[in-house]
Write a structure and sequence with these properties.
By secondary structure, this protein is mainly α. The protein has a domain at 13-149 and 214-236: Alpha/Beta hydrolase fold, catalytic domain (Rossmann fold), CATH 3.40.50.1820. The chain has helices at 13-19, 44-59, 72-82, 86-91, 154-160, 169-184, 203-211, 219-222, 225-236, and strands at 65-70, 92-98, 135-138. Strands 1-2-3 form a three-stranded parallel beta sheet, with helices on both faces. Helix 1 (13-19) runs parallel beside helix 9. It is globular. The two termini are 22 Å apart.
Length: 239
């Protein structure tokens, strides 16, 4: 599952991961979905949900499979992996997630063979039980999508834009309504609590890293994260 803006692949990070997989053992396929998230296209939430449906449909035609994705695609693949039934989990032989916006904190979700990546996903944390199948992440330090400090205010931005779309008046109204529902249900991430005060600064640096320094894009290729992730899949997926 490719990243936002690349419904058919071509983001560069996805392709770097795929090219390092053992082609004698794995047949790769890009599963198309909207991969949108802002403005005049489908909202991130709608795009994510359509991605999960598309990936599940393709999964259901496979005897065995690895679920993999980058950025928004990693959220899609990871959310599906976390919700698999026992029968589907027996067919899943591995999960590989790059720059997962719902990456949990800890060494187990850092890039295999590289230093522990701090922080966790900008959308919050989603555990995936590794006892059911091998699960690996590629996480670049400084990437605000998957390695954001707990007390960073960018978390509120992620909470608010989940359903953002202005492609029709109806969708604009729905965005406001769904955001208000999250507020009233107290589902916003509490980055501002006193125990996280040390992280309150630094939003500008993370924005710069995202927009200009390649923390969410080229770092995954130039620092070997995609290769290390593919190598882990090549080694540990044995079924």
């Amino acid at each position: 599952m490719p990243g936002t803006g690349y419904p058919n692949g071509g983001d560069g990070v996805t392709e770097s991961f795929l090219e390092h997989l053992d082609r004698k053992r794995f047949r790769t396929e890009i599963v198309r979905y909207p991969a949108s998230g802002f403005g005049l296209a489908a909202s991130y939430g709608d795009s994510r949900d359509m991605g999960i449906s598309a990936l599940r449909k393709r999964m259901n035609t496979s005897e065995r499979f690895v679920l993999a994705g980058y950025s928004q695609g990693a959220v899609v693949a990871g959310d599906l992996a976390a919700s698999l039934s026992e029968s589907d989990a027996r067919r899943c032989v591995g999960v590989a997630l790059i720059a997962d916006g719902r990456r949990p904190a800890g060494p187990h979700s850092s890039t295999p063979g590289q230093p522990i990546c701090p922080g966790y996903g900008v959308i919050d944390q989603r555990p995936i039980p590794a006892s059911r199948f091998p699960v690996f992440w590629a996480s670049a330090p400084g990437d605000p999508i998957c390695a954001l400090p707990a007390g960073n205010p960018l978390r509120t931005v992620a909470d608010i834009i989940e359903w953002f779309s202005v492609r029709s008046p109806e969708e604009s109204i729905r965005w406001g309504a769904r955001t208000m529902d999250k507020v009233t249900a107290r589902q916003l991430q509490h980055w501002w609590t006193p125990d996280k005060w040390r992280d309150w600064g630094g939003a500008a640096a993370y924005i710069r890293g995202f927009l200009f320094d390649g923390r969410h894009t080229v770092d995954y290729v130039r620092f070997g994260h995609t290769r290390a992730l593919a190598d882990a899949i090549n080694r540990h997926v044995t079924k």
